[in-house]
User: What shape does this take?
Amino acid sequence: MKAIVLLSGGLDSATCLLIAREEGYDVYAMSFDYGQKHALELQRARALAGRYGVREHRVIRIDFPAARASALTDPSQSVPKDSLGREAIPATYVPARNMLFLAHAVAWGEALGVGDIFIGANALDYSGYPDCRPEFLESFAATANLATKAGSQASLRFRIRAPLLRMTKAQIVSKAASLGLDFAATSSCYDPSEAGKPCGRCDSCLLRAKGFSEAGIRDPLMGPM
Assistant: This one.
């Protein structure tokens, strides 16, 4: 039994990796270098893939046609700080990011004969990205089964697995802890220092801090509670 896991190197995707392993899957991991400022996450993804016995790990380079459309890829924009919840869709949104990631995963899955694709999307404690909503994931799965040879011939059924979708960040932290995730091996920050220290103020850091605080667990990346 095989599955593809979209592995960013962050808390959520690492938790998905361990959930897939817990369910008995041989994991094929896929990460993406899309010119993100927080490229540290790719180092963490490689380390996680090696540590947790991924069968194969691919890092795909994507050249976004509109790098200036996101604070995560535009060198002239600063990553927003202390602004969680101020905008329905924040400046860190990257156009069609999950759509592109999932399309690559489906293509690899069709070649491997793998229909289960795990993504760490969350629709409760999240920044408001539209490509994390259940409506999008359901629609994409339907499209994948219509648009591929394997899907159209019913030789393979694609399923977009989002086990964290309706979990709070605290529930995600607790689940990860129960599965033995080394939290220090992950990176969630959008704007880490050159030494890899999280900024503590971007949306992703604030959500992560909220989850650890509510779960009553110390985050080794941020020091004492």
In short: The radius of gyration is 17 Å. Helices lie at 11-22, 40-51, 97-112, 134-147, 149-152, 169-178, 203-215.
